[in-house]
């Protein structure tokens, strides 16, 4: 999509959303790995309320927006659903993501907010996220550039 169709408010809203998100994570304590690990060990269910509130706001926003607007107001894109099939990549990727979340004690969004509250050792986890994403992209690119016969033999 070209930038010409975007609203001039697109970037300010993205920055404001990120600011609100980071501030909310810091206030709720979700930017601290200890809190997330306590949730994963069934000792503190505060994260459940934070995620629940986010799901309610998102659900209401998308229901109202798609009912009353033809296009997304900031990007001018049509509202469409992206249907992702439940396949082995979802299971494998979700498992790897969950292991990384459990080991670091923090999800990607909260990791960035954690740096903002002075948790600088979490930068190692952020570097790991970038390296993991890069490695997966490299692997997928190498896999799709193989001849069709070789790829079919792998599956």
Element layout with pairings:
Layout: H1 10-28, H2 33-40, H3 46-68, H4 88-104, H5 108-116, H6 123-144, H7 148-154
Q: What is shown here, in short?
A:
The protein has helices at 10-28, 33-40, 46-68, 88-104, 108-116, 123-144, 148-154.
Stretches with pLDDT under 50, minimum 5 residues:
none
Beta-strand percent range: under 5%
- Write down the overall mean pLDDT: 84
Q: How many helix segments?
A: 7
Helix content: 55-70%
Number of domains: 1
Q: From the alpha carbons, calculate the radius of gyration and give it in angstroms.
A: 19 Å
Query: How does the helix and strand content classify structurally?
Result: mainly alpha
How can the largest sheet be summarized?
none
Number of strands: 0
Primary descriptors:
single chain, 7 helices, 155 residues, mainly alpha, 0% strand
Structure description:
By secondary structure, the protein is mostly helical. The chain has one domain (3-154). The protein contains seven helices and no strands. The model has no long low-confidence stretch (mean pLDDT 84).
């Amino acid at each position: 999509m070209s930038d010409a169709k975007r609203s001039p408010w697109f970037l300010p809203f993205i920055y404001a959303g990120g600011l609100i998100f980071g501030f909310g994570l810091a206030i709720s304590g979700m930017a601290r790995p200890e809190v997330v690990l306590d949730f994963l060990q069934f000792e503190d269910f505060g994260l459940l309320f934070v995620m629940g509130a986010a799901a309610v706001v998102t659900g209401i926003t998308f229901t109202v927006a798609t009912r009353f607007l033809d296009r997304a107001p900031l990007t001018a894109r049509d509202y469409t659903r992206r249907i992702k099939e439940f396949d082995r990549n979802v299971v494998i990727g979700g498992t790897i993501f969950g292991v990384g979340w459990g080991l670091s004690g923090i999800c990607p969004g909260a990791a960035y907010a954690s740096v903002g509250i002075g948790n600088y050792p979490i930068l190692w986890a952020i570097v790991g996220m970038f390296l993991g994403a890069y490695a997966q992209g490299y692997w997928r690119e190498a896999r799709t550039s193989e001849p069709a016969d070789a790829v079919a033999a792998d599956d």
